[in-house]
Design goal:
With 247 residues, this protein is an alpha/beta fold. The chain has one domain: 3-Layer(aba) Sandwich (Rossmann fold), CATH 3.40.50. The chain is 40% helix and 17% strand. It binds NADP nicotinamide-adenine-dinucleotide phosphate. NADP nicotinamide-adenine-dinucleotide phosphate binds next to α1.
């Protein structure tokens, strides 16, 4: 497998920055890790299983890029705490945290909002919302001034666009992730850390499926834009491409 070439602009360099990306073994997380490493970042690729991250890291190394791997299940506080300790021990700080790990369960794709299986909702929130909360809570204390937290969200959580009832657990998880992005941004702004979320498009990944239209490297380009955009008071925004969009 080879990831498409996406040009890295001179204004979007991450040289010597420490970036942590969850769900880095495949899909959009792998594309973000690759693009960040091409932009000069020291990227910590986090996967549920170290072997999965190691296979993905080999792809980056085959391009001559540096790639570090670590393992964490974002549904476990203990696992996330171990990850944070290990990254802090090796690097001392983090500049960019990307909360990308996510699930859209098959049961949810078939579930109607008027016949909800709370177990499906719980399993979805545990990764998509609580996972991001666990990661932010563990990493925020050692994200440096000028740092970024980027949450990978979805327009399926966009309240202003209405809903057709599809994927109720996933939609709720992303709407809640957007709300969390705003509140986290308000607090971390005082430490000059910006927090944003973005819609990656309908990306060709296991989650997006074969009919999806967006190359995951295009999704990664938005993450790189958010990781390198100039410091601003306008933080806690929801983005699509390079434009803020309505919640
Ligand atoms: N693809 C799209 O069209 C699309 C559209 C809008 C938003 N998004 C969002 O983009 C993000 C990435 O999606 P994708 O399309 O790349 O999906 P994907 O190909 O299904 O990859 C999901 C990633 O999340 C990881 N993950 C799941 N549960 C985890 C857990 N408990 N702990 C740690 N990692 C876990 C998976 O690890 P394993 O390999 O171990 O399962 C995998 O690396 C998600 O947040 C998704 O909601 C995607």
């Amino acid at each position: 497998m080879q990831l498409s070439r996406h040009p890295v602009k001179a204004t979007e360099r991450l040289d010597d920055k420490v970036a942590v990306v969850t769900g880095a073994n495949r899909g959009i997380g792998l594309a973000i890790s690759t693009l960040f490493a091409r932009a000069g970042a020291r990227c910590v690729m986090v996967a549920r299983h170290a072997s999965g991250a190691e296979d993905a890291a080999k792809l980056l190394r085959s391009e001559g890029l540096e790639a570090e791997v670590d393992a964490a299940d974002v549904t476990s506080c203990e696992s996330v705490r171990r990850l944070a300790d290990s990254v802090k021990r090796r690097h001392g700080w983090v500049d960019v945290l990307v909360n990308n790990a996510g699930v859209f369960l098959d049961e949810d794709r078939r579930m109607s909002p008027d016949a909800v299986d709370l177990g499906v909702v719980q399993r979805t929130l545990d990764v998509n919302l609580y996972g991001a909360m666990r990661m932010a809570t563990a990493f925020a204390p050692f994200i440096r001034a000028g740092g970024r937290i980027i949450n990978v969200s979805s327009t399926m959580g966009q309240l202003s666009d209405g809903s057709d009832g599809y994927g109720p657990a996933y939609s709720i998880s992303k709407a809640a992730l957007n709300a969390y992005t705003q509140s986290l941004a308000a607090v971390l702004q005082k430490r000059e850390v910006m927090v944003d979320c973005f819609h990656p498009g309908w990306a060709k990944t296991d989650m997006g499926g074969p009919r999806a239209t967006v190359d995951p490297m295009e999704s990664a380009a938005t993450a790189l834009f958010l990781a390198t955009r100039p410091a601003s008071d306008r933080t806690g925004l929801f983005w699509r491409g390079r434009d803020p969009i309505a919640w």
